[in-house]
Every structure is written in C-alpha cells, then in structure tokens.
User: Which sequence fits this backbone?
C-alpha cells in the first residue's frame, strides 16, 4: 500500500511541477494539487495504523491515525474492538484492540483463511461481524425465494489474487447457514485482478 501511495505522490509532484510552468493563472489549481498530495500522504501513512505503538498509543491516537471506525464493540471489562474495513476497492479489514486501560494492544488484518475458518454454521451476524468486520454494502444481497442473505468480503488469497469470502445467513433468524469463496472476476476481460499490496 505504501508503494502505491508513493507512486501516486510521484505522479502528483510531476504534475505539480508541470503545472508550475503553465503560468500564474493556474497557480491556485497547482496549490490545490499540492494540498491534495499532502492529504494522500497523510491518508497513506495511517492506512493500517503502522505508525501506532502497542502498549503506548491511546484511543484518540488510533482514531487520529486510522480515522473513525466503521464499528466499535465495548466489552464489559472496558476493553474495545474497532473495525476498519478498507473497501470497497481495498482487500483488508483491520481490527484495533484496546485494553481496559485505553492503550492499543494490537492491530490485525482479519481477512485471512484462519479467520474465515472460524465462521461456522449456527453463528449469529454479530459473531461474524466481531471476527471479520462489516462486508461491503455492494456485496450484500438478499435472495427472497430461498430467504437467504449473503454477505461478501473482498480479500487477497495466498496466490496474490482477489477473491470473495461469502457467508450465507438465514433471512429470518440471521444465523449462518454456510460459507464459501469465489474469485473476483471484475478485472479486465473478466480476469481475476491481482492484489495491489
């Protein structure tokens, strides 16, 4: 991800330098590009929370680095779990775990085969959300004939290609019925896209 951000910044700076030779009437536009470049750098730096330190960083620091979480779970002991899905185009969902003392314990990318294997028939939607975080709204579908709800998560498989992990729920009870995987064929000419990280 940082390599992608670095490439974007090189393109932006090349464009800014080119724009700088266009004349004074474009200077406001060039300043806007510089500001956009600065925003890209700051967004890229905190994408995965890599600038945070377990045992040291606090909740406000996590939010300042990674942004507002999509979901938050507060546990009876005062610890918290924060979900950071990086879709729809991203293939990661990060979970930040904070202890009862408000300090960061760890950050994990949860879209992997070990966590997919934890999803079992009979689990509730909330149990699935606590493991994988929210799926993309564009990958949520209800099938009225079978009364089933499908949630899907885009992820990178071990061959560095994009796939979806699918969970089928009973439409009435919200209980997991089954799971599966299928390739993302949204690439050029219906080819499975490679992962960009």
Assistant:
């Amino acid at each position: 991800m940082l390599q992608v951000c670095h490439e974007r910044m090189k393109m932006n700076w090349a464009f800014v330098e080119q724009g700088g030779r266009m004349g004074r009437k474009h200077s406001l536009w060039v300043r806007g590009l510089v500001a956009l470049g600065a925003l890209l750098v700051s967004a890229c730096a905190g994408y995965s929370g890599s600038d945070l330190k377990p045992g040291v960083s606090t909740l406000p620091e996590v939010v300042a680095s990674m942004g507002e979480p999509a979901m938050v779970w507060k546990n009876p002991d005062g610890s918290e779990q924060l979900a950071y899905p990086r879709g729809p185009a991203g293939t990661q969902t990060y979970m930040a775990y904070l202890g009862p003392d408000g300090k960061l314990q760890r950050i994990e990318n949860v879209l992997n085969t070990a966590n997919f294997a934890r999803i079992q028939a009979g689990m509730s939607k909330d149990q699935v959300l606590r493991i994988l975080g929210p799926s993309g709204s564009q990958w949520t579908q209800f099938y009225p004939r079978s009364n089933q709800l499908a949630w899907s998560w885009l992820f990178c498989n071990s061959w560095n290609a994009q796939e979806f992990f699918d969970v089928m729920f009973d439409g009435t009870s919200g209980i997991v019925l089954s799971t599966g995987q299928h390739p993302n064929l949204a690439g050029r000419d219906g080819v499975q896209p490679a992962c960009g990280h």
Observations:
- The longest helix spans residues 2-20.
- Strands lie at 71-74, 80-85, 93-98, 104-109, 140-143, 148-156, 162-170, 176-183.
